[in-house]
Amino acid sequence: MNNKKELLEAKLASKNVLELIDEAQDKLKSAKGWGIFDIFAGGFFTSLIKRGKISDINVLLERIEDGLQILSKELKDINYHAPVGIGDSFAANLFDIAFDNIFTDIMVQSELSETSKKLDRLYNDVLEIDKYLEKELDEYLD
Fold this sequence. Notes:
The protein has 142 residues and is mostly helical. It is 83% helix and 0% strand.
């Protein structure tokens, strides 16, 4: 049986990661909306706004990775495994603004969609861990 304190710490870490993923998905949705606008009617300023959103997403992706490292450590304390982290790559950042054209806009839109899919998969992985931790904690109440 696992130590209740260790389970609670792991549960807190999993909830933190889930909340960060939710926040990142909200930012991605907004960036994708700006991306669509940028493709059809945007220009330099639309690209700047979209890139500001992407910059926020990159910060959240780093926070998610940090949260996953903490979760991994807490899960090791209870002899459980952690999910694999996501890779984040928005390398076209300055390229999109400096060379604003439909091709780069579509490429960035594709990156946003792919990142959203990766976050969905990660969310499901962490949610499964969270459910496991909840079940383990419930055993202390029985």
